[in-house]
Amino acid sequence: MICVIGAGVAGLMSAYFLKEAGAKVVLIDRSSIPATGGSGCAGAFISPKIGKDSSLQEFTNEAFFFSQKFYRDRFPKFFHTDGVLRIPKNSEDEKRFKIYEKYNYTPCEIWQKSKIKEIGIDNVSLGFFFPEAGDIDAQDLCKELVDSIDIHQMNVESLEFKDGVWSIIGDRESIEAKDVVLATGYESNLLDIRYMGIKGLWGSRGDYKSSLELPISIHKDFSISSNRNGTIKIGATHIKSPTPCLSCDGRPLANLEAKAKELTKRDDFELIETFCGMRSTSRDHFPIVGSIVDVSTMLSEYPAITKGAKVPLKHYKNLYILNGLGGRGFVFAPFIAHKLSQYILKGEPIDSRINPDRLFWKWVRKERL
What are phi and psi of 249, to 5 degrees? Predict the structure, then answer.
């Protein structure tokens, strides 16, 4: 049996693909319902990354290709493929857009000022429209995913490995499994994984009633969804403070609302509901997927590694992680969860761009300092 700990989109997708491949899976979460953290609060915009052909852009767009097809084929009722228009954040960003153009994911349409004005947005002279992009009904999708998976409510306190079996220990009970996947997001305190540098990144979303007749979604440094049945979503992953509730002073959407009103020249946004939650991100903004280095063993058996010595890495047996999805959780999750399932069940190697090993050596060198 494989136990997946964490029922956000990372854990749900891991369990989904493992089960699809024939594994017996149990999903554990401290809540009896899925996506009670950052995943349930997401605007869940599914779009490519623009830029100058960086490794992160390449990986993100590979994930977009896989995930938009996955949602379109398997969960079309939750995937709204109205397209996403990416527009510059400011005048300097507009100059960069002209450089980005040749690196864009395709299909992509170049929209000029007159075309953008047709959808009610003035004073924007350039945009990239991705017709295959859209957004997901995050909470509905997560509920659908968990319907086919055995979910067990439990507050996990520790993990123990003995005789080839993991014990997942809670305050009232324990569960045994041959393999364990940690998909706990920014709250990763079950073992020493400092080297991964996982941090929390606060996101907010508001659902609004509005007369804004927006036929597509728009992304600037925040996102506005298309208008469906008189409702739009406004959201962003935008606060890095460790105390986000103090930073927003009880009004997490105030800044986003102001930006939306300025962009659309509308002030009839009537808030229906606010969603806030913490996402997890890594040092280099790539997801973290694969086996976990046994830090204490490495430091005790090979103390010279802090001085530059190169030795084989030692990993925990049958223990894996899927984390660090940041603000693109619903883009990354299907793609990397599929990769993880192939790694666990078939031994297919993990892409070096997302393998946690990449982060260990940089971290351990700093330990010397």
Answer: 55, 40
Query: What residues pair up with 179 in beta bridges, in sequence order?
Result: 2
For 51, phi then psi, to 5°, come to 160, -155
Distance CA 116, CA 111 (A): 6
Supply the DSSP symbol for 8.
S
Helices (H), the chain: 9-20, 55-74, 91-100, 113-117, 138-147, 244-248, 254-264, 295-301, 329-346, 357-368
Q: All domains of the chain, ordered by start, with CATH?
A: 2-38+140-198+283-368 (3.50.50.60), 79-134+201-276 (3.30.9.10)
Separation of alpha carbons 223 and 135, rounded Å = 10
Residue whose entry in the numeric block shows the structure tokens 């959808």 = 119
277-286 pLDDT per residue, tens = 899 999 899 9
User: 129-158: buried (b, 16+ CB within 10 Å) or exposed (e) per residue?
Assistant: bbebbbbbbbbebbbbbbeebebeebebee
Phi first, then psi, for residue 280 (nearest 5°) are -115, 145
3-class secondary structure, 55: helix
Instruction: Count CB neighbours of 232 within 10 A.
Output: 23
- Measure the CA–CA gap between 227 and 247, rounded to whole angstroms: 29
Distance CA 21, CA 6 (A): 20
DSSP assignment, residue 226?
P
Residue owning tokens 């997560």: 142
Cα distance between residue 344 and residue 181, in whole Å? 10
Distance between CA atoms of 41 and 235, rounded to whole angstroms? Answer: 9
Cα end-to-end span (Å), the chain: 42
Amino acid at 89: K
In which band, very low, low, confident or very high, does the pLDDT at 66 lie, cut at 50, 70 and 90?
very high
Burial pattern 304-335, b for ≥16 Cβ within 10 A else e, equals ebeeeeeeebebbebbbbbbbbbbbbbbbbbb
> DSSP letter string over 260-282?
HHHHHT----EEEEEEEEEEEE-
pLDDT digit string (tens) for 82-130? 999 999 999 999 999 999 999 999 999 999 999 999 998 988 999 999 9
Residue 64 to residue 46: CA distance in whole angstroms:
7
